[in-house]
Each structure stands twice: as structure tokens, then as C-alpha cells.
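Exam review. A common question shows you a sequence with its C-alpha cells and asks you to describe the fold in words. Practice with the pair below. Do the first one on your own.
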Amino acid sequence: METIVNISMVTYNRLHLTKQSIQSVLDNTKYPYILTVVDNNSTDGTQDYLKELHNRKLIKNLILLDKNIGVAKASNLGWQMEDSLYYMKFDNDMIVLKDNWLNDLITTIDNVKEIGVIGYSVEGKRYQMLKMGNYEFQTNSSIGGACFLVPERIRVKMGYWCEDFKEYGEEDAEYCWRVRHFGFHSAYMDDMHTLVHKDDNIDSSYRTFKDNCRMENLKSFWKVAKDNCRFVECKTKLEDYKNFIHIGNL
């Protein structure tokens, strides 16, 4: 595997936030990585902006979809574009403030094998603290998918994001449920000031869409999660969305 970390971002409109988020990654990431972006058919100029970054070789893999296929499927597309040691799901409304953020995540998860997935919290509250060896971290039944690092050793056991929910929500909680079921921790770094959440200017129709998706997801969550644990590895369904434009090196 040549790629160390595949930082993968899904975009859908909200160009002003996408610009801030990507720039913060470019400015504050010293650890070796490549950037993969999957766009869910944005119509606000986002795709032109992403093409410009790709032309400047700041984005390695750029995937432009002709319809919005939702967060989980788009994230899986980005995940599979690189054969990497680590995959990072990073939302396009997260702003990185510290240049050691990725190094600290990888150092912790490499040295604490009991951790399955790790990220930074933007939730404003603390969870149970654990100390293993020289490392302290917060642990919870689920961590948010806005900044979510998965090492390859976990991916080969657990597979990818579950695609059985609605277009938005629950893929992160379900992945953590699988991780915990097989004896690993879902962890947050004990640092509340590395990321900032810039999820602003959400109109009422988008908020309603997200809330409706989550209500529908919760009706089937436990059945889906238990089925995935029984089959262990969660597969992707690429045959459902083959028609996309990939700009980059396959």
C-alpha cells in the first residue's frame, strides 16, 4: 500500500463551507495523506471549485455524481478509491485548527490496539476517560462520523459503511456498534479544540430532510446492525451506482 491516509470528503452544495474545510486540511495536515472528494451532484459551483483543486493536484481523486446517492454510498466510493493504510471520513463543514491532528490520531490508534475507530469530538461534552499505556482517550458507544479514522486492520474485519439506511444518517453509529460488538473501543481524542464545526446556514427544508431520514433510519437500526454483525463484513453495493465520473488515477 503506497497511500498512508485517504482523507475522503463528501460534498453537496454549501460551497462556502467546503472551501473553508478543504483549505484547513491543506494548511494543517503534515502527516502523509491524499485527498479524495465525492460530490453528490452539487449545483452551486462546488463542482467547478473541486475541478480547479484537482487541476492544481490538491485533490487526487475527484468523483462527480449525476445524482445525490446519499452520504454512506458516496463515502464508500471515496473509501475504495485508494488502497490505503488508513481511511478518514471528514465532513465538509469541519475546520482543522492544529497541524498535528492526524499524526496524533494515528499514533494513538497504532499504539492502542483495543481502539477500533477514532476521531475528534465537536459535540461539546466529555465522555468516559480511559488510559491504556501512555495514552488517554475518551470512549463512547458511538463517535460522530464528521472526523472518523478507520485503520485497514479494522476495515478487513468490519467492511465499509452500511448502505441500508436513508440518504442521511446512522452509518457512523452502526459502524461503531459493529466495532463494539467485536470487542473494540470507539474513541475520541482527549482534545476538544482541534476541530470546529461550521454547520451554519442550514435552511429549514434541509433540516427537515435530515430529521425525516433519521426517524426512518431508527425504525430499522437495530435489525440492520445485528444483521451486519452476523455477516461480519459489510459490503458495498457498487452495482447500484455505477454511473459516475471519476477524475484521478485509478
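Now try the second one, then compare your answer with the model answer below.
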Amino acid sequence: MATTEMPTLHGDRVRVRPLAPSDLEAYLDACRTLEDGVSEDDLRVRLNWRVAGYRELGALLQPPYGERAIVLRESGHLVGLCGLVPSLGPFGLLASWPREADTLVARRFVPAVGLYWLVDTRHRGCGYATEAATLLIRHAFEQMHLRRVVATTLADNASSQAVMRRLGMRIERNPEPEPEWFQVVGILDS
């Protein structure tokens, strides 16, 4: 059977690999620092759903969307999460996106391939997000033959904006106040 599953990606200091059921304790530990108010039971369900999703998307010959583990290359310790995900947003509002004369049409959500990262607070500032995102971008452009990837963030998330810049993304700002998570958009074309 053909598959579209993403292989483990190897960097100098990190690997980006599929999550596994054996990651449960590290996943729970990382998510506790990343997602306030999410129950342990919900996180267990979420991990199992993500692990099953790799197989199911692959069997359906769908893109390898989903969350991956960022692990230290030497120790295998899980330090964060990253992935390629469907990104829906009002991209028509951005200056470099094909412009719509009608503002109502420009505000409509359109799909793009989104890149995202979350690093455990104890491991931030080490460049792990940039290295993991670089591996995903390389895979997206060289293996999946994508033309463009995007990343979105809040206006006050300077750390994510800095990662976008290090990745060589073109940074654009949403000219409208909503949606909140779509205030800063990084765009990278192949």
C-alpha cells in the first residue's frame, strides 16, 4: 500500500518524529507547560488520536498533517511539538496574497498549509523551534513539493515572530483586528 507518512527528520541537535504511545508521560509533561487548563484525560485522548491519525491519513493518501515530537537527538528527550497542519484564515487580507477588490470576499477563510511549533518553556531560547521548523520546511518543499507554507501568531508573540524571521519568512500583518491568532503571518515560498 502506498503511504504519505512523514519520515523521521534528522537535524544537528533535534529529530522531528511521529508521536508514539510511549511518549505519554513526556507529552503530558510538555503539554502541562504549554496548555493551561487541559485535563490529563483530554491530553491522553489527544495523543492517541494523533498517533492513529498518522496511519489513517497515510492509508487515505492524504498529506502528512499533524503534530510531531521535537526530541533531542542525543537523549531522545521530548522538548516540544511541531507540525504541518491545515491553516484556514482570511489570507486575502494580506498584501502579498492574491487581492480581492471586495472586502467581504477578502475576509473569507481560505486553506493553506500551516507550520507550527510549541516548545516546552524549560527548553525555549535554545533554537529547537527554528531547527525543527527548518526540517519540516525542507521536507515540505523537497518531498511534498509544496509551493508555500505559512505560520500565524498573535501580535504580541515576539518569540514566534523571531522564529519566522530566522526561517526567512516574509512577515505580514493583518490589517484588521480579527481573528486574534491571525495578526502576524509568516509566509515562505519555495
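Model answer, second protein: The chain has one domain: 9-189. The first strand starts at residue 9 and ends at 10. Full marks require stating both points clearly.
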